[in-house]
Structures are given as structure tokens and as C-alpha cells.
Design goal:
Order of helices and strands: HHHHEEHHHHHHHH
Strand order of the largest sheet: 1-2
Distance between the termini: 54 Å
Number of strands: 2
Radius of gyration: 18 Å
Strand content: under 5%
């Protein structure tokens, strides 16, 4: 397993570097820029939760009557991650999912939540992804990102889902971005404190404990299958390429907004 994981990390290192060093971070220096960033990134937070629940559905029994399903160790790993992502705590100790925490950060920051709310309402009513993306006028870069994730979700292949969950969403928050957020927090804590907490919590939980659990999960699911590891690697590469595309979209939107304000 270690050899396969190291091969994947070597393969994706240039893509991770592109994400961490993306030009979008050099353009984020005001609350207005953070609002645009969040209006795109919220879709990645939501489809991360969808990916997580898809894994739980595939790896554990979520129907009644209950029967043992799969490997008990893998069940433990995914259930442990779900608990942390779906029922974490906010800065006041109240239970919230990471998505709800992020949505609260958007509201505090003054970011537009109309699009994501229309998207969610339409998805709940129709379960039609393309229809919901169209109805909410989701930005193309965010829509492409979500469609790519749901392509893996709809494959119903748990090992691919686990692969992009683990490597496609690893801790890719650069120190420069945290420095920007800290500076903005010093200037206007009443607008950015929840987002700052979210990012710190994301680094602590997703980049630490959950990362180790997810690596074990991928190893358990791919096992000794050379073919599965190879397919997992390709899915991870595509997921990271889509993340770069998402950041490209944010970058273009920030510049467009700035030019219109001149």
C-alpha cells in the first residue's frame, strides 16, 4: 500500500503545487474578494459532503433491516469521518456540519448565498443535478467541478470515491491564504471570524486525523489490485485538475468584478 500511495503522491505533486501556488491567492486582499471566493468554493464544500455520504452508503448498511456490510475496519473509518464532518462544532460549541458552518461564514461575510440556496432547494425537489445547476445559474467553473465529482459518485465505485475524497481534497490551503485571512480578521473580525474558524478547523480535522483515516480506507479498498490503484490515480488527477479549473474561475471573477468597479 505504501508504495502505491507514494507513487500517487509523486504523480500529483505538480498539480498540488499549482493549486497551492495558484495566482488567485495573490488577488485576494479584501473582504469583497473573499465573498467571490466563497460563492464558488461553497459548491466544493457541498459536493465534498455528498461524496462523503456516498462512501458511507457504499461501505456501510444505511437501510433497514440492518445487515453487516463490508469490512468492519473500513466501516469504522468512514463512520468516524462522517461524524466529524457532519456533526462538528462551531466556535461556540454548537453542533454543525462543515457545510452549515461555511454557509454561516458566508452570511457573516456578506457573500451572496442566493445561488447556493436555489441550487440546494432545486436539488432537494428534483434530484436533477444539471437542472439545479442551471436553475441557480451556478458559475461554470463551479458547475464543472461538481459534475466531475458526481461522475465519480455515480460510478458507484467506492474505491474511486475514496481516492478522490482522500487525495483530491487533501489539505491544499497555502500559508499565504491563511496569512491574508488573519490580516482581514484583524481589520474586521465581525465579518471574517467564522470563515477563519472554518479554515483553522479544516486544517486541524481534515488535514490531520481524517487524512490518516482516509488513507487507510483507500488502502483497504484498493488492496493489492494494480488495476484499481491505477484507476484511482487517474480519478485523483482529474479531480485536482478540476480544482485548478475552479480556482481559475474564481480568479477570473475577481478580476471581472474589480474591472467593473473602476
Amino acid at each position: 500500500m505504501t508504495r502505491n500511495i507514494e507513487r500517487i503522491r509523486t504523480r500529483i505533486a505538480p498539480l498540488c503545487k499549482q493549486i497551492v501556488e495558484h495566482k488567485v491567492y495573490s488577488e485576494i486582499n479584501k473582504i469583497e474578494d473573499i465573498r467571490i471566493f466563497m460563492q464558488y468554493h461553497i459548491y466544493a464544500v457541498w459536493d465534498f459532503m455528498s461524496l462523503l455520504k456516498s462512501l458511507q452508503n457504499n461501505l456501510t448498511c444505511t437501510t433497514v433491516p440492518w445487515f453487516p456490510k463490508g469490512d468492519a475496519e473500513t466501516r469504522y473509518l468512514i463512520n468516524e469521518i462522517v461524524t466529524g464532518e457532519e456533526s462538528d462544532v462551531d466556535a461556540s460549541g454548537n453542533r454543525k456540519s462543515h457545510f452549515e458552518l461555511y454557509l454561516g461564514a458566508m452570511e457573516q461575510c456578506g457573500a451572496d448565498i442566493l445561488q447556493i440556496n436555489i441550487f440546494l432547494k432545486t436539488m432537494m425537489a428534483t434530484r436533477d443535478l444539471d437542472g439545479a445547476l442551471a436553475a441557480s445559474r451556478t458559475p461554470k467553473a463551479a458547475a464543472d467541478f461538481v459534475r466531475s465529482t458526481f461522475g465519480v459518485i455515480n460510478s458507484d465505485k467506492a474505491y474511486l470515491q475514496a481516492a478522490i475524497f482522500t487525495f483530491g481534497r487533501e489539505d491544499l490551503i497555502p500559508g499565504m491564504f491563511m496569512s491574508i485571512i488573519n490580516d482581514l480578521h484583524n481589520e474586521a473580525p465581525e465579518q471574517i471570524s467564522i470563515f477563519k474558524y472554518y479554515l483553522e478547523r479544516h486544517i486541524e480535522v481534515d488535514g490531520g486525523h481524517h487524512s490518516h483515516l482516509a488513507l487507510k480506507m483507500v488502502g483497504n479498498l484498493c488492496g493489492n489490485s494494480t488495476q484499481m490503484w491505477a484507476k484511482a490515480e487517474e480519478a485523483i488527477v482529474e479531480s485536482l485538475q478540476r480544482r485548478i479549473g475552479l480556482w481559475d474561475g474564481v480568479y477570473a471573477a475577481i478580476l471581472e468584478k474589480r474591472n467593473l468597479s473602476k
